[in-house]
Amino acid sequence: MTAVFINPQLYVQKNDKFTTGIVYMPIALAYLVAHFKSHNIKTQLLDLFGSSPKICTEENGSLVFGKKIDELNLKDLNNAKCFFVYANQVANHLSVVEIIKYLKKKYPNIPISVLENSQAVTAYSLSKIRKEFLDIGCNYIVLGDLENPALQLYKNLEQKKSNSEVKGLISKDFSNDKIDFVENLDDLNIPAWEDFPLDNYWNLGYAHGPLSSKKYIPILSSRGCPYPCNFCVIPKTNERRWRSRSPENVVKEIKFWKQKLGVKEFHFEDLNSTVNDKRTKELCHLMIKEKLDIKWKIVAGTKVESIKDEETIELLSKSGCNYISISPESGSKEIMKSIAKPFNYEHALKSVKKMNKEKIFTQACFIIGYPGETNPDLNKTKRMVFDLTKRGIDEIAVFIITPIPGSNIYEEFDGFNSLANLTFTPTWRKDYKKLTKERFIIYSIFLCTKFLFHPLKVFKQVFNFFIKKFDTKMEMVPYKFLRITKFQNASKFKS
After folding, report:
1. Degrees to nearest 5, angle at CA 101 with 98 and 103
2. The pTM is what?
3. Spatial separation of the C-alpha atoms in residues 326 and 3, rounded to whole Å
4. What domains, with CATH codes, occur in the chain?
C-alpha cells in the first residue's frame, strides 16, 4: 500500500502579479515524506505546481500555475491507503478543494486527509474552517506538526483501527484539536527534497527569498513562535510554542545538501529564527568554525528585538548570513498595542544601521488597514519607513491586512466570497482603493529616501535585475512579473 502526498497548484492574483503568488518550496510536506519513508512506508509524491510550474491557466480571476490533478499521467492510485493533500497557503484554497472533489469522485473508497501548514503566516488554521473540507468529502484533517498524527492515521488505516484518540486529528465523527508537538526537532529526518522536482523550482529564477545563486534549499531551524500577534494565524496553529533544532543538527543538514547537491545558498524559513539569542550565537560560531563557505538568509521575518546586540549581528555576517527580514508592522504605538506586538523603535534603527555596516541586506515588513487605524497612525508608519530607510534598510514590503482563518481578527471582517480571496492584496475590502493609494505613498517615500541617502544601492539593485542575482526580494519582483506574464501568454498561445 502507498501513502500519496499532493502539493496543490499555485494561485496568482490576476490583477496583482507583483505581490501574490509567492513560491514556497513545500518544506512541511518534504519533512512528512521523509518521516514516512523512515518507517518503510511506500510513498508517492504528486507536486501539481512543482512538476509543471510554467503551465498557466485562468480561473476565477486568478492565474493558476501547474497542472490540475486530472491532467497528470497518474500511475494507478487504487493501491493508495490514504491521500494526503497539503493546504500550503490560503490563497491556494480552491486548488485544494478541487483536488479533494476529484479524488472523492475518482477513488471514493480511499480516505482523504488535508494537511495543515503550521509554519507559514500565509497559511490558515484548518480547524477553523473544518466544515468546508469535511462537507466535500475530506475524511480527516491533520493539524500542527504533521509527523506523529499523519503516521498514526496511516498505520491505523492499515490495521483497521480507530483514529478517534489520535491527537491533532479531526473528522466528522471526532475532533482532537490538541496538537501533538514534536518536542525534539533533532529527531526529525532530513526533508526528502530528493523526491521533489528541484530543478523546476530552481529554473523559475525567483523564490520566497532573494536568489543570489541558481540552487538553494529552504531550512527550518525552528518551529513555532512565542508571540501573540492578533493578525497572525501562528498563535493558533502552534499554540505560541517555539522549539528549535540544535546548532549541530542544523549544520549537519547544511553539510548534507552541500555535499549531495552542491548547494551553497540556504533560505531559513523559520517563523522566528532568532528567538533565543544564545542559540543564534552558538549557531553562528559553529558555522564559522566549520568553514561552511555558504550564504544563508532569514527570509520569513524575525523579531528584531531578539537580535540582542551588535555582537550577534557581527557573528551573523561572519557566518555567511547576508539577508534578514524584520517585521516592524506599524510606526504607531497604538496600532502595535492593538496587534499585541511590542516594538522597540530605537533598537530597530540601531540594528539596521549595524546590519548595513556588516553588509547584511535587510527587509522591513509593514501592514496597513488594521482595524482602528487612523490617518495619524499611517503618518507614523511613513515616518518609520523614512527613518529605517535613512539608516540603510534595503527594501520594504507593505501588506494590506487580511483576515486569515485562525487569527484573532478573522471575525472582524466580511465581504470576501472565498477563502482564496484572503491574500494581502484584498480587493474585496471597501477601503481597498484608499489603502492602495497609501501603499503607493509608502513605497514612494521609501524609494525617494533610498535614492537620496543611498543612491549607489539603487543602481546596484537595478544592475542585479539584469544579471539575475538578487540581494533583496524586491529585485525579483519585476523579473517575476515578466516571467509570469510570459508563461500566461505562452499558455494562451498553445490553447
Report:
1. 105
2. 0.95
3. 38
4. 2-176 (3.40.50.2300), 207-486 (3.80.30.20)
